[in-house]
Design a protein that fits this description.
Number of helices: 3
Order of helices and strands: HEEHH
Shape: elongated
Largest sheet: 2 strands, antiparallel
Number of strands: 2
Structural class: alpha+beta
Distance between the termini: 78 Å
Number of domains: 1
Radius of gyration: 22 Å
CATH topology: Pemi-like Protein 1, Chain: D
Strand content: 5-15%
CATH class: Mainly Beta
């Protein structure tokens, strides 16, 4: 007989905590997050849950929204962009 209860919120994997407080990330979770050796995971609290995600994983659209909000930035030519980078580098790395 099929279980009539809610199986929608079943865990996708389990990990066991070692005495040093370490865990192994199951292979299915590593694949889903696209992480491997050296990857950084971040832990975030969302209400009564703790969410684990790959750190520093932002799309260009998310970065654009963070920098400019919903406004469209002023268009610049490649030469203008290169000159802006040069100006920034001169100021940033100038010897004082």
């Amino acid at each position: 007989m099929h279980y009539p209860g809610n199986i929608e919120n079943m865990a996708i994997a389990h990990s066991k905590v070692t005495s040093q407080g370490q865990i192994s990330v199951p292979v299915d979770v590593r694949r889903k997050l696209g992480v491997g050796p050296g990857s950084v995971l971040e832990w975030d609290e969302e209400g009564d849950k703790v969410v684990v995600r790959r750190a520093g994983c932002f799309s260009s659209e998310e970065i654009h929204r963070a920098l400019f909000g919903m406004r469209t930035p002023e268009r610049r030519s490649a030469d203008e962009l290169k000159e802006g980078i040069r100006r920034y580098a001169r100021v940033r790395y100038a010897r004082h």
